[in-house]
Write the structure tokens for this entry.
Amino acid sequence: MKIIDIIGSSTPSLSFEVFPPKTSDTFDTVKEAIEKIAILKPSFMSVTYGAGGGTSEFTVSLAKDIQDNFGVTPLAHLTCINSTKEDIQNRLIALKEAGIENILALRGDITPENRDKIKFDYRHANELVEQIRAFGGFCIGGACYPEGHPESPSQAEDIKSLKSKVDAGCQFLTTQMFFDNNILYNYMYKIREAGITVPIVAGVMPVTNVNQIKRICSLSGTYLPQRFKAIVDRYASNPNAMCQAGIAYATEQIIDLYANGINAVHVYSMNKPYVALKIQENISEIIK
Ligand code: FAD
């Protein structure tokens, strides 16, 4: 099924994100966790793709497993920064052969580790979107950043680039995580004003452990509301309490999003079946 048809329906959608293992040694453990999430029958599941090529080989096989063995629509992420046009063409053939119908088209992060592997066939994700559209047959999504992409000089510039990505053929956009829904509501107003009319899938990250908190704090520009900081201050040293509080915070965010007309919510479930299950249970009546 195409994601555009799932999120275009009037029923609220709840989807989960998973990531492939870094090495084949942990493939079975990761696959098991992913399958426990697939059993929950979310609206769709996205499978990330390693920008440096490390974990990318497993994206197609895990997406296929989710679809063939659990009947859940997969969204395969695909990055282009370290690829040639020919590499991407081969990936598209592999995705088509696996029966995958949805791709989240991304540029990929430029990091010190992958900087020397950049192939320069692509500068931005819009060029990948164009290639996928020309290939044909896929529903194409892209990423967007309610707080602005770190490389953008301004939010206005970022939204202008986003418009070119949508014009190139992006049919929906999934947001970067945010911890204050007002940031998304303000952003929605601005992108709609800029003529971007495609559906927005709101990305929500349940923060359930200290490592995640450290990683988020190191990301430039992510606004952490006082209410969120108070939870972290009080519970970060108590893993079970932090997990419960993080799930509750994300649940509240999700309910508020649905209540304010955002019909598609994507949970960065980070291969944690327990977190996915609890969130789904917490809103079971709301997404019926
Ligand atoms: P782009 O759309 O190319 O934007 C990157 C920057 O360039 C922005 O500042 C933008 O404003 C600017 N820009 C865009 N187009 C133009 C243009 N035509 N001219 C000038 N400037 C332009 N990374 C992974 O490696 N694997 C994943 O699976 C993955 N999944 C993700 C899922 C989501 C929902 C999100 C939000 C991010 C994900 N990322 C993933 C991270 C992503 O690869 C990085 O954020 C990356 O830095 C930007 O990717 P993009 O596709 O948004 O790039």
Notes: The chain has a mean pLDDT of 94. The pocket of flavin-adenine dinucleotide is lined by residues 48-49, 51, 77, 79, 104, 106-109, 124-126, 143, 149, 151-152, 158, 161, 164-165, 174, 176, 203 (CB under 6 Å). Residues 141 and 172 are 5 Å apart (CA to CA).
